[in-house]
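Narrative of activities, Objective 1.

The group set out to show that a structural description can be obtained from nothing but a protein's sequence at a throughput compatible with the screening campaign. Below is one input-output pair from the validation batch, recorded exactly as produced.
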Amino acid sequence: MFSQKISLSLMLLFLGTHIGITQQAVKAQTPVPPATTTKSLCPAQLATSIDTTINRPLFSRARWGILVKNLVSTQTLYSHDAEKYFTPASNAKLLTTAAALKQLGANFRIRTSVYQDADGNLRVVGRGDPSFKNAQLTLLAKQLRQQGITQVNKLIADDSYFQGEVINPSWQWEDVQAYYGAPVNSLILNENAAVLTVLPQTIGKPLQIKWADPTEAYQWRVENNSVTAQKDEPRLVEVRRDLKGAVLHLQGQLPVNSQPDITAIAVFDPVQNFLRHFRQSLAAEGISVQQTTIASDGNNEQEVAAIESPPLSELLMETNLNSNNLFAEALLRALAHKKQLAKNQSTADVGLKGMQETLTQLGVNPTSYSVVDGSGLSRKNLISPAALVQVLQAIATSPEAKIFRASLPVAGVSGSLTNRFRNTSAQGIVHAKTGTLTGAISLSGYVDSPQYEPLVFSIMVNQSEQPASTIRQAIDDIVVLFTQLRRNCYTISPNK
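Output recorded for this entry:
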């Protein structure tokens, strides 16, 4: 697993800057004027233009699924294997976030509570807030200090709100090492990830590791087989985490004159990670802790401190704009919060059932998709382009339409589309969710063309051996065609 670009929120954590999701979202939604449309396309020409792209010899082995419809009239403009199943990658988040918005409401918040019993013990109860970070721990500690608490006999972590596996069993082993495959539990802290920087030293020496949280150095055993290379040599750093223990493997090289390499890995034990950091936050406020433990069989007697997450409307923005897997998985489990779970019943499974019920009520055909997680990280997820278009159509006619659309990346402007569609006619007028796994690339969303009616589309590509960048460019070329459609298009005979 080679180093990958970490999310904005984790980068801010590394830099020691704590800002809310709202501030990030506002920045992400800063409008950029769309590029001027320089070409026009008649609807009758669309099919030929798309076929020219997908039938290139380059894609002879690839499977394409495409559906484009008029958003208002639902007229189909183009369809290619739209009813067939594809691996959706992160396009699965469209199902999760649409269901969460409809079922939970835009103002839904996730509460983290601290309770005190008669013996002076504190029990911190997590309910799966994916946005919870060090800053929130500090606020909890300050609230406790304001209550006059200076000593805690026992600090208990209750991680039982989410039942079942913290890692989806169908996720691949190389994914669960990385921050984007972090465990999903009730007490989440800093997205259950540890941020580290790898730096070159003098030539021939191993690369240096610098942790965003210096105390992480005491939690990991590092096997460092890396080296600092000569000036201008290739940079290739591999950071892996052992699946059976807190062991970090570092391999590869950085040239002596290269910039540091910043990455993040999933923490090995998220509950102990939460407890350790909370104890540090309490100590910083002058509150001593005699003992820490993990338990789920206590009574929540008196709430003495609490923190609520930002509203769901903002959690959706992090989920879709930055394609945050942990947020999507937490929201999937939140769909089960009103259900009475049986003993040993998985919260994620109940959430999946709730998702299907909600989407069916919206008019989405339940046989048009089959998903096993909320993020799209599993290769067992199967969704048709028709299902994604149905979801997008249904939410577009609901009272939550504006909130949902605001959570989607904007072409050439925000989120995972920031660097795509720039200086094209799609810039600023396409709102769409990206998806990327090895051999599976997707893009689904809306087009607000100034020359044509609003469109809804889904494009999915599976089983291609081509680089992801090549497939994305072909997808982008097709989407640009949508933005070039115009009304009142007439074909003039050459004889007239």
